[in-house]
């Protein structure tokens, strides 16, 4: 959605707009395709948690060679997964075997 707004591809529903201060809120709800703030939070407040517990999931960043990234992307595409899912599964397998 942010790219749509920045790119100018979001067209607000004119029937919901007025001069009232809440008009901006309605534009955001329309852009997200939802009716309530509760729905907006579910849609826009981030990805679901990975694993157990509460709060945000830990994030690990690393650099890899281009060739390895290309292999990862190809594998993920071939198996209908996201690259992050493949990395999580591979890391779990590696650590179980260690």
Quickly list its features.
98 residues; mainly alpha; 2 domains; 5 helices; 53% helix; 0% strand; Arc_rbn_hlx_hlx; CopG family transcriptional regulator
Task: Write structural notes for this entry.
The chain is mainly alpha-helical and 98 residues long. Helices cover 53% and strands 0% of the residues. The mean pLDDT is 78. It comes from Kocuria tytonis.
User: Based on helices, strands and strand pairing, what is the structural class?
Assistant: mainly alpha
What is the count of helical runs?
Answer: 5
Stretches with pLDDT under 50, minimum 5 residues: none
Fraction of residues in H or I helices:
40-55%
Could you tell me the radius of gyration in angstroms? Answer: 20 Å
Query: What is the average per-residue confidence, as pLDDT, rounded to a whole number?
Result: 78
Straight-line distance between termini: 42 Å
N to C succession of SSEs: HHHHH
The rough form would be described as elongated
Could you give a short account of the major beta sheet?
Answer: none
Beta-strand proportion: under 5%
Short structural summary:
This protein is mostly helical and 98 residues long. The protein folds into 2 domains: 2-44, no CATH class; 66-97, no CATH class.
Strand and helix layout:
Elements: H1 2-7, H2 23-32, H3 37-44, H4 66-78, H5 83-97
Helix pairs in contact: 4-5
């Amino acid at each position: 959605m942010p790219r749509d707004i920045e790119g100018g591809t979001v067209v607000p529903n004119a029937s919901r707009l007025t001069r009232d201060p809440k008009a901006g809120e309605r534009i955001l709800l329309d852009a997200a395709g939802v009716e309530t703030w509760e729905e907006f939070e579910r849609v826009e407040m981030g990805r679901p948690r990975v694993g157990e517990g509460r709060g945000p999931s830990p994030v690990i960043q690393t650099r890899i060679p281009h060739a390895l990234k290309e292999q990862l992307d190809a594998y993920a595409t071939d198996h209908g997964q996201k690259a992050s899912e493949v990395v999580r599964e591979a890391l779990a397998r590696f650590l179980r075997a260690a």
